[in-house]
Amino acid sequence: MNARLDRFTDVDTPALLLDLDQVEHNIDRYQRGAASAGLKLRPHAKAHKCSAVGRIQIERGAVGLCCAKLGEAEAMAAGGVRDLLVTTPVIGVLKIRRLVELAKSARMAVVVDDESNIAALSEAAGAADVQIDVLVEVDVGQARAGVAPGPRAGELASLVARSRRLRFRGLQGYQGKLQAVASLGDRAALVREAMAKLRVSLDGVRAAGLDCPVATGGGTGSFPIDIGLGTLTELQPGSYVTMDTAYAKVALASDGDAHPLGQPLTILASVISRPAAGKAIVDVGWKSASSDGGLPSVKDQSGLIFEFAGDEHGSIRSTAGELNLALGDRIELIPSHCDTTVNLYDRFAVHRSGRLEGFWTIEARGKSQ
Amino acid sequence: MNARLDRFTDVDTPALLLDLDQVEHNIDRYQRGAASAGLKLRPHAKAHKCSAVGRIQIERGAVGLCCAKLGEAEAMAAGGVRDLLVTTPVIGVLKIRRLVELAKSARMAVVVDDESNIAALSEAAGAADVQIDVLVEVDVGQARAGVAPGPRAGELASLVARSRRLRFRGLQGYQGKLQAVASLGDRAALVREAMAKLRVSLDGVRAAGLDCPVATGGGTGSFPIDIGLGTLTELQPGSYVTMDTAYAKVALASDGDAHPLGQPLTILASVISRPAAGKAIVDVGWKSASSDGGLPSVKDQSGLIFEFAGDEHGSIRSTAGELNLALGDRIELIPSHCDTTVNLYDRFAVHRSGRLEGFWTIEARGKSQ
Hints:
Two copies of one chain form a homodimer. The first copy, chain A, is α/β, with parallel strands linked by helices. Chain A has ten helices and 17 strands.
């Protein structure tokens, strides 16, 4: 039995543990990095989905939070965060109604890539007598939402600027696919390529005579490059606060400290069966650890391998001979993908210096609408 | 725009739709199959996690429900289901305390595969003055929890039978790996092999002079074979009620009606960006459709392909030329794996004959403890 885990005997399993010392370390590391480059940090709440974590980010210097969905923004606003950017287009009557409602009590920004959506936002904001900040999303290589680099961003920006109720704020350009490229050099080349695409659109907007104070984007992997590049004015990293095995493989600094972030997020699992000498079954499966990023790893126990064994089961084996795990013993797993794992849990079991501090509600869990 | 989906314009997306006509059809089909073979049906609640669905199963003939975890059982009991089998070992002080609490108001059965667990259950049941039904789990090929086929089940059964507070009820033998074998003939051979292993243990228990009324196991895929085999007395199918694309590929009857079950479960998604002529982006990603079973498929629109494009994005393309989807249009997706997709949602949007009936809470969503 891992002595460190004796401290969590009152926490039932599976549980999502969050080490607050390391959370603060990670928040401060990226906040300092952004500040020293004169950039603003607007961390992405989609990673932690917890307003208590978001409030720490803001207390320590973030200008607000990003949210992937409106439901996430509603949860963060209810938790006291008052400056929010929804990084996905908000489409349709039902959602626009919710957005203008939210804009009555929080400063709301949203991205757009379509004329009809701009018209609908303008009309709804007017009817509700609110103002909404709008950024045009540019596809800088993600091949998802967003307009193509070039004059299109300026055309949409002009349309936004003509609305009395919408305020054009700038452009968003996010390239998710390059975030996990392990080599800092390879990643830097890809980031420069993506940001060159964003600059084409930024130039177009400015050539149209529009004020464009914000260029937002970036993630945990591009962060060390973004802070030196000077294209983005606001950075959106999310995973840096919780981390996972995918990002643990990504070099995040060039100063010799290539892995400057801690790993605060773990899953506490219990052994529920010992069917054979070399195998233990634990109570974590696909319903308590996401698999879209691969397999979770076993923390602090070299040679132990976790494999999924169903919705609610995982299998542990040892590559180093004997398996010293008894029925009821606990182990910690490191999620392969933090965002989708956090989305499976209602709360974090928060600890500091090895002691349980309490449970924090993950208010935006499941808020995909 | 799909005319059928115009009926759900008041339902925000992503939403999990459940067609009640088809749910009832599926429930009745398997209930009749079990009854005509003289077998009991104890459907697995891990698929739907919703007590309202569980109550329909019981109203239509099920003897109770299976639950994968104690938290699922607590949710079903709170929803009025009073006869529950927890199909995973319940290990440790915290969980056993919850089990005996539950046994004060519901008839609780649990599986075991370990002496120390039997002793702990017996002691806790005695202290709380409750009775708990106990089944010994046998590993019939799943290579997960359970004792090896042979005399070991009889030894544990005798230990259970000696406890005043535990009642030995029988054996559980579940082989999950064969459930999705597409060919009925290939699957039948594997089911017979697994059930032969269970019979070895059943014989051992009976040779020890113990009453062993229950042999429980089976799933949606093995069901058509189990009802003809006569080894199991209680069947545990789960997915049959909601279905998914994995089970749609599995032949489920030999009478010419190889696909006798409907597909009641779908995800309602909205188009949120049309970045290119051949591509639409929808608001469903890894956080609203599970990926452990592969890709969801697009319902009723041949040639359309869904691919994951991140936590909250999916990409739709057409293999048949033009893509007739406008911003705000809705499509329905069929989950690849029902259990893990249901576990992402707080409620079903329930409809019947094409009309929305209301929302049913998925009370056991996330109840992995």
